[in-house]
Amino acid sequence: MEKDFINFHKPLVTDDEIKEVVDTIRSGWWTTGPKTIQFEKEFNSYIGSNYSLSVSSWTAAAHLALEAVGLQDGDEVIVPSMTFTATAEIVCYFGAKPVIVDVQKKSLNIDPQEIEKAITKKTKAIIPVHFGGNPCDMKEIIEIANQYNLKIIEDAAHALPAWYNDKLIGTIGDVTCFSFYVTKTLATGEGGMICTNNYEIAERCSIMRLHGINKDAWKRYSTEGSWYYEVVAPGYKYNFTDVQAALGLAQLRKIDFMLNERKKIFEKYNEIFSQNEQIQLYNYEKDRKPSYHLYPIFLNIEQLKITRAQFIDELKKLGIGASVHFIPLYRHPYYKNTFGLEEKNFPISEYLYPRIITLPIWPGMTDSQIYRVAESVNALSMKYKK
Ligand SMILES: Cc1ncc(COP(=O)(O)O)c(C=O)c1O
How do residues 359-371 score in pLDDT, each as one tens digit? Predict the structure, then answer.
């Protein structure tokens, strides 16, 4: 890429991250160790959940969460259409069926009315995705879950930190899963966290994230020595490392600063786009505090001579990296063919998908980069206006 290319995302790196990582490398604790424990503790006290368990990714977190709530072959789990494949693929790991439903036009979040329509005797859980860190309609979703006895596993890959009615995401559903993938609001390269207030779920996830080893056995049989462990289930190798935790600790210290930076960029973009009639903006709900993970715009394609794909190409020629969140799940060959899905059954997603573009929004963007992105979008909107 050319030197002044504005990437879609770039993690904020300061001396703090470098110092923590070097310190970890020198310590010799390269895998799960004291920094992982410290990161879990600090994360847990930030979120205010009873338990926080670090793992290798969001995907690992949600896989363990579904295992812990007892998902089985033949069960169904309701997921939104506008999300990444991970949200649905973890359901398939169990031979269960992800039931993909349409989203709300205003938020791109799962529509509670669509959830209710999709419930069958086989439904076991709902995975609401807080799109761009904009909290879903949790009150309505909890009411439905209570009525039909369903578990709520929140996909908070974008929602760190975000608040719903003054409650931090991570303290609401049965389980909440976060992602620390490099583009996320707190990045450790790869990584994830499971938050829950439920002891049984935490206990099961804790055992399954590392080969099904029951650590309590160490305490019970401590006379056997520190080499002793017991395997109580065929678990997974999903543990977090101290090198990741080093990055996590440094990033956690500036979590509020990074949120504020994204909010400022969001507001600047909104201001610069206020007169642009070729695009529609994404509105966050007033009763929620989002994480501002994404900055989506929606092209008024009827008024433009180019498509969304061409618009993204033109942005690239101007040195700007943009993305699309998301290609709706039912459009991917696997979900389409396996579950016989038809585009016409997802009218809101079909309306949104050809219009949406997500623009760079990351702490560390300079004012001139923010203006260059926004002014390029405005210039292209004028250039290709019908
Ligand atoms: C909504 C959503 N859910 C889940 C994931 C998966 O996260 P991870 O890469 O940590 O497994 C992503 C990652 O991009 C995502 O955007």
Answer: 999 999 999 999 9
Q: How many CB atoms lie within 10 A of CB 41?
A: 11
Reported for 143-147, long-range contacts at CB under 8 A and 24+ positions apart, including other chains, are 144/112, 144/115, 144/116, 144/119
pTM of the predicted structure, to 2 decimals: 0.97
State the Cα–Cα distance between residues 246 and 356, nearest whole angstrom: 35
Question: What tokens appear for 192 in the block?
Answer: 């994830």
Q: Tell me the sheet residues that pair with 298.
A: 280, 356
- What distance in angstroms lies between residue 25's CA and the mean position of ligand 1's atoms? 27
Which residues of the chain are in CATH 3.40.640.10 domains? 15-253
Q: Quick one: which of 316, 295, 276, 265 has its CA closest to 358?
A: 295
Do 69 and 151 contact (CB within 8 A), yes or no? yes
Q: Which residues make up the CATH 3.90.1150.10 domain(s) of the chain?
A: 255-383
Q: How far is the CA of 2 from the centre of ligand 1 (A)?
A: 28
pLDDT at 71 over 90: yes
What pLDDT digit, counting tens, does each position of 155-177 carry?
Answer: 999 999 999 999 999 999 999 99
- Is the Cβ atom of 57 under 6 angstroms away from ligand 1? yes
Residue 219: band (very low, low, confident or very high) from pLDDT cuts 50, 70, 90:
low
User: Using CA atoms, how far apart are residues 134 and 286, in angstroms rounded to an integer?
Assistant: 10
Residues 6+ apart with CB under 8 A from 293: 132, 133, 158, 159, 184, 185, 262, 361
- Kindly state if the Cβ of 81 falls inside 6 Å of ligand 1: no
Would you say domain 255-383 falls under CATH 3.40.1110.10? no
Token pair for 221: 């049989």
Say if ligand 1 is within 6 A of residue 244 CB: no
Please state which CATH number belongs to domain 15-253: 3.40.640.10
| Per-residue DSSP letter, 24 | H
Question: Which residues have CB under 8 Å from 350's CB, separation 6+?
Answer: 328, 343, 344
- Residue at 86: amino acid letter: A
Describe the chain by its helix, strand, coil percentages, rounded to 5.
40, 20, 40
